[in-house]
Design brief:
mainly alpha, MetI-like fold, 10 helices
Length: 234
């Protein structure tokens, strides 16, 4: 119990003083996750809007596949990305393995289905309201998609925050493709695993405090957005 208390005190001091190593790892984690979120949102949200407005033969199967991929094991994603980026893989010549780019790629693959599925549910309901109006004024498919994306921006932001929460806490795939290299690819989750194994509980707890703070901030933001949406305010 004494060791735990001392570890908490030291961790709190590291957070308050914004320790250089802690700051470096936290900022790298944010940079990687936010980049992955932007890329994934740029893919997932237009895809969700397209699936809402366009009818084609296998649309239901595509939607079902997206929903199923929400539970895709991250370590499997990490393994596939590793094989693709390794020297013997098709993209090995690019030299991206064990770089932040590889970590971003893995995170994008993991969160695209999550963001697309959540966004599609909201956009599908909105399309039912707008369908007759948009059809009657004879707008193009691109205009339909743009209208849905703009009017559902709050729900899409919530989907993006959910993707951020999933990505920021990822460790399996990031460990495989990033290698947890100091000053290069070490992020919050991999650093926590490393420092715990080394017995440096103070730094591990400090990193955990930062990670929990980010996760709580995301959940508070989602709750606030949901509450304001029910109250009918932007």
């Amino acid at each position: 119990m004494t060791d735990l208390w001392q570890g908490l005190v030291q961790a709190f001091w590291l957070v308050v003083t914004f320790d250089a190593e802690l700051a470096e790892i936290s900022l790298r984690s944010l940079r990687v996750t936010l980049t992955a979120l932007v890329v994934a949102s740029a893919i997932a949200m237009p895809l969700a809007a397209f699936l809402s407005v366009q009818r084609f033969r296998f649309r239901r199967h595509v939607v079902a596949l997206l929903n199923a991929l929400m539970g895709l094991p991250p370590v499997v994603v990490g393994l596939v990305v590793y094989l693709m980026l390794s020297r013997s893989g098709p993209f090995g010549v690019l030299g991206l393995l064990f770089t932040p780019t590889a970590m971003i790629t893995a995170q994008v693959i993991i969160i695209v289905p999550l963001i697309a599925s959540i966004a599609h549910q909201s956009l599908r309901d909105l399309w039912q309201e707008y369908h007759d109006l948009l059809i009657s004024i004879n707008v193009t498919r691109r205009q339909k998609i743009a209208t849905l994306l703009w009017d559902a921006r709050r729900a899409l932001l919530t989907a993006g925050l959910a993707g951020f929460g999933r990505a920021i806490g990822e460790v399996g795939a990031i460990m495989i493709v990033g290698g947890n290299i100091d000053n290069a690819t070490r992020v919050l989750t991999t650093a926590i695993a490393l420092e715990t194994g080394k017995g440096d509980f103070a730094l591990a707890l400090a990193l955990g405090i930062v990670l929990v703070a980010l996760a709580v901030a995301v959940n508070v933001a989602i709750h606030w957005l949901s509450r304001t949406e029910r109250e009918g305010r932007w």
